[in-house]
Specification:
globular; alpha/beta; six-stranded mixed β-sheet; Nucleotidyltransferase, domain 5; 6 strands; about 20% strand
Length: about 190
């Protein structure tokens, strides 16, 4: 079952296209739905993240995180209500927000239409991080998250949202010491 689910995630195909080497697609889908709904998938993810952190000499639960967003193109078959146009990136599709620990391991994910501003779309994943990972007291973000969101995170969530700004003379992409791990996570997601 697990190999079949991994195949589905990697291939991105329809359930009915699952190769005959696996159990019938209906059975695989039933297990996937059951494990998702009863929290098994989340518990496995959290256990693996804790093991990786401990193997790296860190506490199982993180105390700091990183947030970022990425606009991704979607097919025209994606319902119009769930996609939008990100004018800054010139992308028609969806925007995914992720919060990671400082190793780049996922803490929260939120997907919205691409036209949602970063400071607005970030509220849900920041709230989920606060609820699911109460030890995370500080989160670094890029300058697109500056403004009212910083105040909201402090006043409502009791968390410090620190904006990592580019150097005034920076041209093009440069690795920022507090944010590289979240960028790497996006590259991992793109490699699928």
């Amino acid at each position: 079952m697990v190999d079949a689910i991994f195949y589905m995630v990697r291939a991105g195909c329809a359930w009915r296209q699952l190769p005959r080497d696996f159990a019938p697609w209906q059975t695989v889908y039933w297990y996937f739905s059951w494990w998702h709904d009863d929290g098994t998938v989340r518990r496995i993810h959290n256990a693996l993240r804790s093991q990786i952190r401990e193997a790296d000499g860190r506490h199982a639960e993180p105390s700091a995180g990183l947030i970022d967003s990425q606009s991704v193109r979607t097919a025209d078959t994606v319902p119009a209500a769930t996609r939008g146009f990100d004018a800054g990136k010139k992308v028609k599709g969806r925007k995914r927000f992720i919060v990671t620990d400082t190793l780049g391991l996922l803490l929260a994910v939120h997907v919205v239409a691409a036209n949602i501003q970063d400071r607005d779309g970030a509220r849900h994943p920041l709230l989920w991080t606060r609820l699911d990972h109460p030890n995370v007291k500080k989160i670094w973000a890029d300058q697109r998250f500056a403004g009212r969101l910083v105040d909201w995170a402090g006043e409502i969530l009791g968390r410090e949202l620190e904006i990592v700004r580019k150097a005034p003379d920076q041209r093009g992409f440069q690795v920022q010491s507090k944010r590289w791990a979240v960028e790497r996570t996006f590259s991992w997601l793109a490699m699928g």
